[in-house]
Specification:
The protein has 115 residues and is α+β, with helices and mostly antiparallel strands. The chain is 21% helix and 16% strand. The chain has two helices and four strands, in the order ββββαα. It has a four-stranded antiparallel beta sheet with strand order 1-2-3-4, covered by helices on one side. The longest helix has 16 residues.
């Protein structure tokens, strides 16, 4: 008598790791200490560092927003504040209305070039 053929198992699908929801704090530089929570019903997102209690809240959350988008908005607002600029509603309103942002790097005048 012969032996029965064994069936091969189908290959397992690769697991999608997705985008991270826990980040490194830019203030206290602890790894994995910043957590982002998104409340889509209210349209709000909160970011909190568990070590230094750095907090940030935004109301510009859409259906497509991910925790990494909210974290990047926080970093952008910190950079804007360090440069002495405002980061907030006016940028979102200008973007939503189809207006262009102001040019950060204005073209130099032809007469002011150094040689």
């Amino acid at each position: 008598m012969g032996r029965r053929k064994s069936r091969k198992k189908p290959p397992s699908k690769a697991k999608d790791t997705g985008l991270p929801a826990i980040f490194d704090c830019p203030f206290c530089v602890h790894t994995g200490s910043v957590e982002c929570k998104i409340d889509r019903k209210r349209g709000e997102a909160d970011i909190l560092c568990k070590v230094c209690d750095a907090k940030w809240k935004t109301t510009h959350v859409t259906e497509l927003s991910k925790p990494c988008d909210v974290f990047n908005d926080w970093i952008d607002s910190c950079d804007a504040e360090n440069r002495g600029e405002e980061y907030g509603d006016e940028q979102y309103e200008a973007y939503g209305e189809g207006q262009e942002f102001e040019n950060e790097y204005p073209e130099e005048e032809e007469g002011s070039e150094e040689q």
